[in-house]
Request: fold
Amino acid sequence: MNKYFLPLLFITVSACAMNINQLPHEMVGIIFKHAIKYNASPTTLRGICRVFNQYYKAIPYNITLESTEQMNTMPQSLSSRIESITITNDDVALSPQLPNYLSKLNHLTNLDLSRSSIDGAALRAIAAACPHLTTLNLRDCINITKNIETMTPWPSLKNLRTLNLEDSSIDGAAIRAITASCPQLTTLNLGNTSIDGAALRAITETCPNLTTLSLRYCKKITTNIDATTPWPLLNHLTTLNLAGSSIDGAALRAITAAFPHLIILNFEGCNNIMANIDTTIPWPSLNQLINLNFRGTSINGTALRTITKAYPQLTTLTLGDRYNIINIDTSWPLLNHLTTLNLHYSSIDGAILRAISAKYPHLTTLNLQNCKNITTNIDTTIPWPLLDHLTTLIFNDTDIDGAALRAISAACPNLITLSLPFCDNIMTNINTTIPWPSLKHLTTLDLRLSPIDGAALRAIIAAYPHLTTLKLDCCRDITKNINTVDPWPSLNHLSQLNLGNSCIDGAALRAITTAGPNITTLSLEYCKNLTKKDIQNVLPQLPRLQTLNENFIRPAVMTTQPSLSSYGGQVGGQATASTPPTTTTTTLH
Reply:
């Protein structure tokens, strides 16, 4: 096919040359990329260039080199415009011709050699050939330290801003040599490398303009580290990623003291964080830090209070993915700007949750996913602290019961999203005889795989009149205690209703859809208590329905098959004459 593709393409393009102005720029780019990919001859490429002479600027700035032949066939008129190259073939990366070819690309600024077998000697030659590089990707280059020269200065890469060495074999000596030639470096990724503390200090000395530094999964970061003398200041650094590294308390204190303008600090999975930590003296102040992640670490309450006290502008705090929050009591640090708190998979109980709610009244997002002790030591007899800024509340897979849900949601009048899937205790201590707390702003309610029954569902949605999305997938008790005789609370704003794999039956489906006439997406797959006839019977009352998933529904004998358009429906937003609803397959997350 390649043999005939380019000649036919050239003939077609030549024949259309009179109407060249009608050809989109994107099409021009596609033609050139295919021509390069299929190793078009210089004559063919020059011919295409002539046809598109007035669209010269549409020649792609980025190409992928998949073979050495491409370097030989590409005309100078095309090569001179290339700004970005991705090399996906080791034969190209290791070719002795590559440095010479790259040296002719005066506009080349971005070079991607990731996952190649390039060694240190080849890298030095390429660096010498590409003095204008601003971005260099060497991720997964596992031979980078072979044949590398670290004793003599490297070719200057004075324009380099971004260097990615994640998962490479780079070591301390090599990174010192390379970064010494990159004084303007702003983004450096050294994740999962063998960089030690001494090399890190050297980097901070030679790269004073760093804004983003990733040291995730650097397991030797505390080796040869000097935490007793002040570190070089990095006044521009705003993002530091130490997730999964071996950083300890002493090193953390020394490093953060030298990075006063940090905005994002990530310690996720740092299991050594409590080693050598001193909480008796004030922590280095980071007045601009807004995002702090201690997910999956061993930090305790005392250390948390000491550290966060130095971060007064913190807006997002993540402490989840661990079952033993040690010594965290009701005296939490005062964080007046905190808006997002992630406590998923933690062991906090009801008393601590109440204390948190009282301490952080400006929270907008509270994530309690998989917190299994929420109802322990909880007092639902007195009003919950007001959280009138909270818009997103996540209880996924917790032990929350009906009484706790009522008490907490009553204190969150402006909730927009309430997530309760996998909450097995939600029917415990629930009282449906008195009105449920009103949430007039709630638009999304997720009750997937919960034991909610018909009476409780009716009581809850009556308090949520502006729901737009209701997820009841796999709710097996939904028809228990359900009232299908009296009209259901209005759901005029509901547009998406998910009932897939639930025990909904025809009567319940009619009752709910009658209350939600503006539903556009209805998911009913695997509903064993429904037939095709049950579904067809509710179509007349859903004039706006666009998408219907009725996969694996039992068929029913019908004399006619009414289409969605018979009731004024639309598919994909377009009015149709006879097209039925779209059948889709949804994925439960």
